[in-house]
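1st attempt posting a full record on here, be nice pls
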Amino acid sequence: MSAELRVVVAAAAAVGLAFIAAPATAEELVVGSFGGSFADNLKKCHVEPFEKATGATVSLKLGNSSQFAASLRAAGGKPDMDIVYIDNSLAAQAHNEGLTQTIDRAKLKSAPDILPSAWGKGDSYVVAMVSATTLVYNPKLVKTPPTSWLDIADPAYAGKYAIGDISGTAGLQFLLALNKVKSGTLEDITPGIEAIKPIAEGATVLYTQADQLLSLFEREEIAIAPWYPDRAGVAIDKGLSLAVAYPKEGAVGILPAVIIPNGTAKTELALKFLDQILSAEGQSCFSEHAYIGAVNTKVKLSDKVKALVPNGDSLEKTWFIDPEIIAKNTANWTRRWQREVTR
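the predicted structure (as tokens):
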């Protein structure tokens, strides 16, 4: 073999060895997630076991349901997320707009264990958990627990309460709850708009992100707010003085769902992550850490979680609004809110 040939062979061998030695790039999955404690528990219960099992990496994009829906519309079929948490009403709306793909149940080992009612129209989404908008208050500042949605307007709380903006779930649901109490209907929310005007005007803040309330409760700048029992439960564990009250008229149910956007190139990986979300282990972990109800029928909630989440009588009274009705009307309700409440 000539000297020149030996050099070529040696160089080729070196390149081959370098190629063999180069580590494979881990596949990345981008998950649209709610922020704060929700994201913390998502990492603990779903991301970490998923990454360990698959070797893939997960990146979280944080936001709320309205933001995710807007992002998917703007993406033009090229989403920057591969799987997304979103309220079931906006999941239904996204499906109607052709923004979601059908979830292939045959590729989910956990599918047979999921409540039949958790599956969205045409398997366009699946509800991943059960929660509600309730009244959360500081028992050090509120000596008599609230019993009605109307209690938020009690003069005793003047300057010491917050409500959600309509762009967030709690804000929209509080408006609809007031509307129902004032004998309005989902076809006519004028009674709710009129009832919420003075309440919004006197609120410390119209919050858009759930965890905005943590610092307000911590500094005792607010005493009460329509909020989520799961966020309250996590805050209680961290030492905040909080309690949850289910209004006598009924809480408003929240069904956070999961969708796989049309256009993602990571459908198979997204289905694997969804299987982790829906598994008995994943559901149990998330329920116990996040104080939220499960949709996997094999999960048994602890007494600690049952005390806060919609359960028993409080679940029976919870108002679960048809997501198709919300999807159809949200844009109009939002315009009225912006024109009449926050002008």
